[in-house]
Every structure is written in structure tokens, then in C-alpha cells.
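call fold(seq) -> C-alpha cells
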Amino acid sequence: MSNLPSKLWPVRDRPLPDELLSSWLVRLAHLHGLKAQSFCHLVFGNEHQVWNRDIDRLAPAWLIEGLSTGTGVSMSTALDSTLRVYEGLFYPKFRTAGNLPWVLTQQMYHRKRNGFGLQFCPQCLKEDTVPYFRKRWRIAVNTTCQLHGCHLLDRCPACGHAIAVHRLDMGNGALPESAPLSQCFACGVNLALAITSPIYGYAKDASQLLARIEQKLEAGTVQWTRVEIEELAVLRHLTGLMTARYQHDYLREYVADQLRVKDIILDPKGLSVEARPWEERRHLIQLAAWLLADIDYRLTNAWKAGSIRYNLLLKGLDSPPAWYVKIVKPLSNWRDR
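ret:
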């Protein structure tokens, strides 16, 4: 490939709708009949390591420029395949280190993914002409596929490994193009045939609130209002209150009791919602969404019941929305309980 007369690669393909950069890059490698690691060494050089980082999040400039040059797509199209597209929506400002709000963590160790940072819908993969992975499947608040009315999965149901499309061809003597991206790299099971459960929720208004968020994510180009963006920040803050190690913080137990659902023992308790497995994350988001659906009444009642202290309600929430501050301020006097 280094002797090509043009900088354009022999086989060029645009990202599919909502396709994740890592998915697109592995597909391009396989379209050239090469393994992902070999392809990246050829086109980006040995001095650039691709798969030892979360490229969907970090997406270094040399990688975006190389993809744009090799495929002929614009720089903005290449960049839109990364999680940077959610800046200003799920997180206020991009940063290279630490958690990004609502972005699932990969918990990387060299080229391994120890975290369950990529979800999938088996039905979507099954219906794809060419199976691929979506950007919205990296978003923690998105736990269902509204199109198919089912829950997402965050690991192979057969062997329990996290999804890592770049490892699909490692140690595999077969031609890369013979293995679809829907195949588990560890055990070879076709993820498109995995069984998942229909959508269920703890409360109707909470499920409707979450469904609106997930439908907007699936639509992709729909504009989000300022209030909707603020609600996402408050929703995440509420999940944080339910996982914190604060004394006298029993908000999760209180909400679970109000909804008459079995609570989940979180271990470790202080882990963020983005780093938790699907079952825990779905549980926390459902509880928080129930509070948010009628937050003035329900949060006030939770405070009156002694399940949360006033000093925690704003702690750690940067630039809290004015409507949330208005709800919380009257709860400053414990005598009003």
C-alpha cells in the first residue's frame, strides 16, 4: 500500500449511519483483506499505536487525517464517527483523561478491554446488511433499542467477554473478511443471534422519559433543547447520589422502596454509572428517572423522609440548572421536615 500512486486507499467506504470509528476502521481493514493491526501499521506507520487507546473517544488528529485522506471523506465526517460528537450534550467539554459523563468506560489494559464499554442490539446486527457498531451504544443512559423494543447487551452472552471488534482477527488464520463484526472475538458466537429481553420499566413516567432520550439518540440529527440537556446532567447527578459513599445517604434504598422493586447491592459503591455493568446501570437510571419525572414533589418527599441531606443535593453538580436549584433551595432548613 505504500507504493500506491494515490493517497486514496484501494477500497474506500464511508461510515455507515451512526457508525463508531473503531467499527469503521476494522471494516476498512477487512475490506482490504488485512487484519486490523496489520492494516493500521501499513497506513499509519509503526510509530503510531492505534488499539492501545480508546480511539472512539481520543481520536488523535493523525488518525482522523489519515482516515479522511485514505477514504476521501471530509475531516468532519471522519470526526463525526467519534464520541466527540456528543460534546455539549452528554458532557460539557471534551477531556482526554478521566471519565466523560455518560460515556461508557473501556477500562483498557494495553489492547484489552476490561470494562463493558460497548453495548449492542442483536436485532440491529441481525438486520444489518453489513453488521456494525453504533456510537449511541457507547452512551451509558442508552440501555434499550427503541426500534426493536428490547434491552441492549454489554457482553457476549456465551462467554461473558466484553465486545472488542479490533480483536476479532487476532490469532485467527482465516481471512479477515470471512468474519463479520457481529462475531465474538473470544468464542466465535454470532452476537446477532443473542437473546435479549423486551423493554420493561419500574414506572410509566420514568420509562417515557428515558424512551424520549433513547429515541432522540437513535434519530441522530434531532436537536436537543437546553432543558433536555440540563435534565441529562441532573439525571446523572441523581445516579451519583445513589452510588456515593456519603453517610446518611439512603436515596437509592428509599426510591427502590417507593417503587417496590428489589434493590441491587452495589460493589464497589463509589463507582460511577459509566463504569457499571448493564444490570446495575439500568437499575440506577430507572430509579433516577423516576425522581426526575416529578422531581419537585418526589425529591422533596425523599428529603422529608431523611433519605438524603440538603448539602449533598448540589455537591459535585457543576453549573446546576436554575430550575433544579429552585427545587433544592427550600430544603436547606432541616426543621421544615
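Strands lie at 108-109, 112-113, 144-145, 150-151.
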